[in-house]
Amino acid sequence: MQRYLNYIDGAFVAPDSNAWLPSANPYTGENWCEIPRSNERDARAAVDAASRAFRSSAWSSFNASQRGVLLRRLADLITEHAESLACTEVRDNGKLITEMRGQLRYIPEWFHYYAGLADKIEGSVLPIDKQDYLTFTRYEPLGVVLAITAWNSPLLLLTWKLAPGLAAGNTFVIKPSEYATASTLEFAALFGRAGFPPGVVNVISGYGSEIGDALTGDSRVAKIAFTGSDSTGRRVNEQAARDFKHVTMELGGKSPNIVFADANADQAIAGAISGIFAAGGQTCMAGSRLLLQEPIYDEFIRRLVAACGVAKLGDPMDDTTQVGPIANRPQYDRVLSCIEMAHADGATLVLGGRPYTEGNAKRGLFIEPTIFRDVSNEMRIARQEVFGPVLAVIPFTSEEDAVAIANDSPYGLAAGVWTKDMGTALRMSQRLEAGTVWVNSYRAVSYLAPFGGYKQSGIGRESGYEMIKAYLQTKTTWIYSGEACPDNPFVMR
Ligand code: NAD
User: Fold this and answer.
1) Is the shortest distance between the CB of 212 and ligand 1 below 6 Å?
2) Radius of gyration (C-alpha) of the chain in whole angstroms
3) Across the strands, what pairs with 2?
């Protein structure tokens, strides 16, 4: 069986305790590789390396333009290794190969974008209100960034942190999810080849419950960039608060996808399907609450069920497969328990709701695309994140009603609005409490577009021009050029 190693200080190393965790392929059910089960000593070694590298001239002598050159080389290496990285995520995580090829084509764009931005972050000379002072600002990196990622799209989520963070001159300790580590450790091999000095990027694998506190509690970590559930995020944020670390928190969602009666029905049905069933619903931005205006409620559901009933589940390596397996056993159990919960709360099942076991799928962790209608926003299926292929359909009467239902959620990551009326679209986009609002589309992302959550969906944003500043701090320098002794409290003026 293939065995992966931690990547610390520019070398692949076994974990201190020589302990390993199996990683299962959710399509075949077989353990296909082993990853390090690191302990606190490994965690300390990774932070040591990142901290040393941050202070070393090997890294600090790279100016912003030169860091841009490294990021471009890294982008090219990702493109060169795209197919093998994509296949590893399919094997480890059950992602569809079609989705992964798309992601791997797009991931280099983030590195190119922030490579170009690295040397365009300018401080300013301040028109200061005092005589004989030259006062200016400049932006400096924060130091060691701890990037903690979720299992659903390990490389993409990491890219959103690494590209701006490295462009800004920070060093990294990366802790991928124990359920999907392999692609990040393969990715690690590219940093040395791109020319990054040892220790600038380190990857440590293992259980969050075993090494998480050692990493998040290390006072040498300046920032934590976290993607994961709100419950883990809360704990990580509490740890960060102890010594005032910077944080970016990308957490869960229960996003409303809202269809008005005047919408183009074909487009809205396609958007509702991709909103919840792309990636098997295992995405933070899933449009898991479908709000339908009453005049179209029954007909829309009928057409939606007919369209989803023919979805092809199966081998994620097959280009024609539309829905892959659930990525890991705990998540599979959780999705099934959420389906039970929806039944118990009185929602009406109109599609799916069971494990899927046809053909080769019987070995894997498949759940049928599932749709519940007659859901009220108070039911648990409308309030809790499932992170799986389960859609809750809720009726609404008016714009006012749609806003009230959509915003009545602890989350605020994203929302979709389907209408031909641009007045409705604009008013809704202003009134929805969500970090991203898509109108007549769903799921579009870009390196140019900030992404992140309102309310309990997170703190801060990722991607876009401004987000490089989330990895920088401002220094103000005052230079006095006058003859007098400035600011001496013992001189009477
Ligand atoms: P999770 O919270 O279980 O784990 C996330 C990461 O935290 C993993 O690497 C895990 O090992 C680590 N971790 C666990 N305990 C820790 C601790 N005590 N200290 C430090 N780290 C610890 O989440 P998950 O199941 O991997 O991912 C699914 C969640 O991620 C969903 O809620 C989803 O919405 C969210 N997500 C959000 C976004 C976004 O951009 N907003 C994107 C993808 C996923």
Assistant:
1) yes
2) 24
3) 33
Q: How far is the CA of 282 from the centre of ligand 1 (A)?
A: 12
Nearest-CA residue for atom 16 of ligand 1: 208
72-85 confidence digits (pLDDT tens):
999 999 999 999 99
Chain center to CA of 412 = 15
Beta bridge pairs of residue 259: 292, 418
CA dihedral 449, 451, 454, 460 (to 10 degrees): -100
- Inter-residue contact 90 to 96 (CB < 8 Å): yes
Integer Cα distance of 174 and 148 in angstroms: 6
Distance 15 CA to ligand 1 centre (A): 22
331 CA closest ligand 1 atom index: 25
Q: Which domains does the chain have, with CATH numbers?
A: 2-251+457-476 (3.40.605.10), 256-439 (3.40.309.10)
- Going by alpha carbons, the residue nearest to atom 30 of ligand 1 is 228
Among 38, 184, 213, 232, which is best to mutate for testing ligand 1, by the most ligand atoms less than 8 A from CB?
232
Tokens of 381: 């299926």
Reported as half-sphere exposure (CB side, CA atoms, 13 A), residue 148 has a value of: 31
Helix spans in 118-229 (H): 154-167, 182-194, 208-216
Calculate how far, in angstroms, residue 418's C-alpha sits from the geometric centre of ligand 1: 30
Q: By three-state DSSP, how is residue 41 classified?
A: helix
Q: Is 458 in the pocket of ligand 1 (CB under 6 A)?
A: yes
d(CA 158, CA 185): 12
pLDDT computed for residue 411 by the predictor: 98
Residue 73 host element (H or E): helix 64-80
- Stretches where the chain sits below pLDDT 70 are 491-493
Identity of the amino acid at 75:
A
* pLDDT at res. 360: 83
Dihedral sign (CA 481, 484, 485, 486): negative
Catalytic residues: 250, 284
- pLDDT given at position 81: 98
User: Full-prediction pTM beyond 0.85?
Assistant: yes
Give nearest CA residue, ligand 1 atom 13: 208
Q: Which residue has the tokens 């001496």?
A: 488
* Ligand 1 atom 40 nearest Cα: 250
The one-letter amino acid code at 147 reads A
Q: Look at residue 492 in the predicted model and tell me its pLDDT.
A: 58
118/101 Cα distance (integer angstroms): 27
Tokens of 429: 């986009």
CA distance readout (Å), 115 to 74, 163, 323, 473: 10, 8, 35, 19
Closest CA to 204 of 2, 3, 14: 14
At 493 the pLDDT is 52
